[in-house]
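@here heads up, posting the sequence + SMILES for the adenosine-5'-triphosphate run so it's all in one place. Ping me if the SMILES looks off, I pulled it from an old spreadsheet.
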Amino acid sequence: RAIAAKPHPPQTLAAAAAGATSTTRKLAAMAGNREAFRVAVGNTLERRLFYVPSFKIYGGVAGLYDYGPPGCAVKANVLAFWRQHFVLEEGMLEVDCPCVTPEVVLKASGHVEKFTDLMVKDEKTGSCYRADHLLKDFCKEKLENDNTLSPQKEEELNHILAVLDDLSAEQLGAKIKEYGIAAPDTKNPLSDPYPFNLMFQTSIGPSGLSTGYMRPETAQGIFVNFKDLYYYNGNKLPFAAAQIGQAFRNEISPRQGLLRVREFTLAEIEHFVDPEDKSHPKFSDVSDLEFLMFPREDQLTGRSATRVRLGEAVSEGTVNNETLGFFIGRVYLFLTQLGIDKDRLRFRQHLPNEMAHYAADCWDAEIECSYGWIECVGIADRSAYDLRAHSDKSGVPLEAHEKFAEPREVEKLVITPSKKELGLAFKGDQKMVLEALEVSFVSTLTCHILLLLCWPTLKFLR
Ligand SMILES: Nc1ncnc2c1ncn2[C@@H]1O[C@H](COP(=O)(O)OP(=O)(O)OP(=O)(O)O)[C@@H](O)[C@H]1O
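bot reply: prediction finished. Complex structure tokens:
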């Protein structure tokens, strides 16, 4: 199903921009001072009703915003272009699933257990902060304003910034202690970092017995529909499904205006491909594109991003496979056609710990704005993790089958565990050993590429 969305008439935007000349002049005069410039742009956008804090007459709620008429027009235009560029041009299957999601789905996907950020608390007031953000702010502030830093210290702080997403709770806690970082508002001491689940919990139905969550991403709606979508596609791989919709994340301390909010619009694509053949028939369309890439080796050794031809990045193995490369190229085209400056756009590879354990490779499109380099698209080869998890939990096989041209006779070694022997050898651990044996023999032919786009992030870019 393809929706041909009509772009919003540009008059609304023109009306909003009319009379902005004096503001534009004032803003231009501030361009040298990033902070002042950002505040002025933010104020102007609010005054002109691009967006305003939600529930403002009651004091507002951090991380929740309303779009006014010009904001709605921009959003509608961007979404229409996204649908045109990805869904229609690539013949993807679009779906539209509910935001309220039963617990079982998000337990299977791992979100109930693992969708967390590391939080620290002001030990006296109980105010909460994201541990990695405090460490990042500390390092940046020192590097920018402390002239007494030795070259070794500078190197150390730069290294922390490069590997920040890779740090464990213990490592973050140790650095926060070592640098004496205190609560920003009160200067009180901070607790050790601990995980906080970002999902909003609710209950479905009046009994209160059925737990649900507001979805933190739209992708799960696609995975649980895999069987029907595969059938709709004539039982053939590869195919892609897409969804645009609201996502909800109870962010610990949302700052940075529209860049980190508690409810936002996500546009996601899941591309399902044979794991033994990740070539892409249209890769040559994008292989000559050349742009800033920031592989993990360069990040870990303190080098900067360099301009690389996409075809080379794939053939040299920097990017894991053609399908992943194809989507990196398509995202580059999408963002630059939207008007993002190509010199302020880079593709950064995830560091080993940053990447989910099931991912084969992962790249973020980052845009440099007044807050620094900000992730605005995630592109990941997540193997068959989600399909396998939902198959196991639901008992419905989410698999694809390859039909051979000729029938083949295959001899296969099959392990049939002897429960009695296992019981004698492993006693209480028998169940675990049995499960491990089963898992290692399950195979599935699908994997997917996850592509996430977040619209509100595009608003503040300059
Ligand atoms: N709270 C938020 N507000 C606005 N956009 C968001 C928020 N969280 C994530 N995004 C955007 O959604 C995209 C996909 O989310 P993803 O799950 O990859 O984010 P993430 O890696 O968990 O983000 P982070 O580590 O910065 O919290 C990101 O590329 C980002 O642009």
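MO: The chain has four domains: 11-71, 73-102+215-387, 116-197, 414-461.
MO: One more: The mean pLDDT is 87.
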